[in-house]
Design brief:
There is one protein chain. By secondary structure, this protein is of the alpha/beta class. Helices cover 32% and strands 21% of the residues. The protein contains 14 helices and 20 strands. β6, α4 and β7 form a beta-alpha-beta unit. The longest helix has 25 residues. It is elongated, with a radius of gyration of 24 Å.
Length: 515
Amino acid sequence: MTALTLSTAAAPGLRADAIVIGVAKGAASTSGALVVAPGAEAVDKAYDGKLAGVLETLGASGAEGEVTKLPAPAGFKAPLIVAVGLGAEPEDAKDGAYDGEALRKAAGVAARTLAGSKKAAFALPLGDAGDVGAVAEGVLLGAYAFDAYKGNGKNAQDKKNGKAPLAEAALLGAKPRDKAHKAAIERAIAVSEELNRARDLINTPPNDLTPESFAAIATAAAKEHGIKVQVLDEKALTKGGYGGILGVGSGSAAGPRLVKLTYTSSKAAKHLALVGKGITYDSGGISLKPAGHNETMKCDMSGAAAVFAAVVAAARLGLEVNVTGWLALAENMPSGSAVRPGDVLRMYSGKTVEVLNTDAEGRLVLADALWAASQEKPDAIVDVATLTGAMVLALGNRTFGVMANDDAFRSAIVEAAEEVGEPSWPMPLPEHLRKGMDSPTADIANMGERMGGGLVAGLFLREFVGEGVTWAHLDIAGPAFNEGGPFGYTPKGGTGSAVRTLVRLAELTAAGDLG
């Protein structure tokens, strides 16, 4: 991963491949003219204060994600200036008060643009330690590349995609001896490394990432970071009565697993449980997906990847909260042993479920894990899943839906997601939709009304949350896997959606700010 350094050096004398600066669309009072953001004063001075005009001549507007390159002025040791758009200039921009997400995106775009470079200096606005952390995250997430299957895999020069990620980034204006700045960098590194690990897992082909190998990766990471781990294989799942996980995994030669990761703090007063859907490949089972819908189904374990990353990040940060992660892992395949539409499964909770559609499998594995998590009576449970195409239709490809059995908790999650830059939207759990899952054969069916399918799935999951336990459901089906081009600090492929929201929830819980 890209190495980060904090530097108080002046931009002209810094040896680097490029100096990154921010530009923005000016306020209406200045007729929207391009402005150079704080942090780039030395660069602007070298252009006799006319840098904004030069950039406008080159077509720069300051729009978010826009990149304009120009030769560095005389006297600079770096040969290149990279101006990246921050969007609209805030009213208090003179104080460096740019939105953290704008800084994160700008840093991400610049880091990706500078792939192949050895070192870049980032002279972006740094109003406080929060901005330092935002720029650091943007660099580390934007520089991400998944090339494990390119070339012969021996070294970066052999990769067929050509350019290695940016090797080093110096954050100008960030103070190496400032405790808050150092803490912001350390947090950014821990969260970004774990989020990028989640991206790696999501991008790994399903022939290499099975429930068993996922469990092995989680076990190794848990041992490295002092996290207790328990893995239930087919024998243990059968003995325990985990009918949902076993049913979904019954059609595959790769057996299912339930992984429990337990991070504990001696100073913890609260316990947060996280549950992740981990379908390492989803064919739809007997209810086979139509042509054109299978190619990206390696990403159906994104929820489990997010939970795994969040638990490890909490441990690395030493958060004063107990965090338990449950990874419900299975491969959903059609075969002679696969669960069939019309079959009835007895879940871990004891409830029976009539399976009407084997492609509604995520809720079945989550149901067992939710009930297992509930038995420990945590202060709250949050499940994360690429659960329904209906949520994508409702909210698009960049926003995840949030449902909960407690309105205040749902609002807290939406606020936390907004704070870290992950778009989300509160969704209801309409009681009238529950009747559509009534079954003449079992306690409940795994399908209900087609319209509002994402909400129906949430209502199904609620049935398996223990009484009195605060719970929320994050449907990340849209933002978990980016099939389009990269944007901001988001790459093509696995995104690591919800990792930062979960880490922030753990931090808020540790601080006692979630009740």
